[in-house]
Amino acid sequence: MTDPSHDDDQRASTDDVAKLRIVVLGAGFGGLELTTRLSEAVADDVEVVLIDRTDGFVFGFSKLEVMFGRAQADGVHHAYRDLVKPGVRFVQATIESIDPVARRVVTDAGAFDADIIVVALGADLDPAATPGLVEGGHEFYTEAGAFAAADVLAAFPGGRVIVGVTSAPFKCPPAPSETALLLHDYLTERGLRDASEIALVMPLGVPIPPSPDASAALLVAFEERNIAWHPDTLIASLDPARNIAITAAGAELPYDLFLGVPVHKAPAVVEESGLAVHGWIPVDPLTLETSFPEVYAVGDVTSVGTPKAGVFAEGQAAVVADRIIERVRHGGPGSAEYDGRGLCYLEFGHDQVAKVDVTFLSGQAPVGGLEGPSAELAADKAAFGSVRVRRWFGRDWPTPV
Fold it and tell me: Which residues contact 62 (CB under 8 A, 6 or more apart)?
């Protein structure tokens, strides 16, 4: 990796000249899985730099755990300083530019030249893009937003609550439904449910379109808990002065507490790089290759056609890693292909968790099944997190008491 201003710091040593230089942008599900696989399989033959602007990782489901008082913020944060993997170096830095032709990345910590770039930067969240959301509501998709919402909920005396989506596509499609169900439990435990109303407003016809079984189970759960369901409805703006949410069709919904899914968009540095088309990075659905040679993209930043969720980024990263590993070991292009499969856990409240298994194949309708909900799958979900923390960070989680 070379940097004209820091040659001694960034230049590969003579012993490393033959190593394949791989720069991975983003340390979420995709970046962590990719670098872990490369380290496990070909650490001596690659020089990997993993770049992220933050200092740690938080599972999406952990945000809800903190938001509803089931965990503390410091207990769900996984510091990147714990990443000690042969062949991999973590750099905390802000990415300033990506040149996909020269395969050069410039950051505020220096510049990095690569043989292969993998873009795994996810989607940026923009609460300010929805008029009135910052002033009159609370987004819960960022770490800061979800953690702040814990205090908001703790002080909430009851009333009309809207869980609303302000744009599509959005990350983790089950999360708004989970939030409404967990909110029901939260208010019930505090003796506030009878004095409250919960409405879920989404731009989808059903809660989880790829899985009819999961959607049907959620609709039953909403009805049982008296959660108002507003399908095919997008929140366009809030009027904080009147405590009114205004839909894209112009309907007005009164609220006392608005919990919002903010606008999602590709990071500006991706837009400026020329990688994005119509807002996201197009990739080969089987290989995750972009239109630029030796540049891959995985996860939420792409338009590959799968939901924007960590498990899909992880599966895509595994394919890219396997293709690189095969290239390192055998010298030719790798043959691994993405099968479009992902599974996620769905909180139903009452300590019940379901598992949704969905496969997306290009040109075909998605196929999805549902297991549960059950108490046993709650333990399965906990194991899902702990196994990944062990693989990615090399430690136990939750920390044994």
Answer: 71, 76, 385
**Closest Cα partner for 361 from 283, 297, 302, 285?**
285
Whole-model pTM above 0.70? yes
Sheet of 20-25, strand order: 88-92, 46-52, 20-25, 116-119, 295-297
Question: If the chain, 401 residues long, is cut into consecutive pieces of 10 residues, what is the mean pLDDT of each piece?
Answer: 44 55 98 98 97 96 96 95 92 98 97 98 96 97 96 97 95 94 98 98 94 94 98 98 97 98 96 96 96 97 91 96 95 87 91 91 77 93 94 83 37
DSSP H or E run through 89: strand 88-92
Q: How many CA atoms within 13 Å lie on the side-chain side of 6?
A: 12
Cα separation of 384 and 375, whole Å?
15
> Rounded distance, CA 360 to CA 368, Å?
9
Q: In what order do the strands lie in the sheet with 252-254?
A: 235-239, 244-247, 252-254
Residue 397 DSSP class: S
Tell me if 105 sits within 8 A of 97, measured CB to CB.
yes
Identify any residues that bridge with 99 across adjacent strands, giving them in sequence order: 104
Spell out the domains of the chain, with CATH numbers in brackets: 7-123+266-339 (3.50.50.60), 125-264 (3.50.50.60)
DSSP string, 341-362: EEEEEEEEETTEEEEEEEE--T
Q: Please, are residues 172 and 344 in contact by the beta-carbon 8 Å criterion? A: yes
Distance CA 68, CA 70 (A): 6
d(CA 362, CA 12): 40
- Residues 58 and 71: their CA atoms lie apart, in Å, by 12
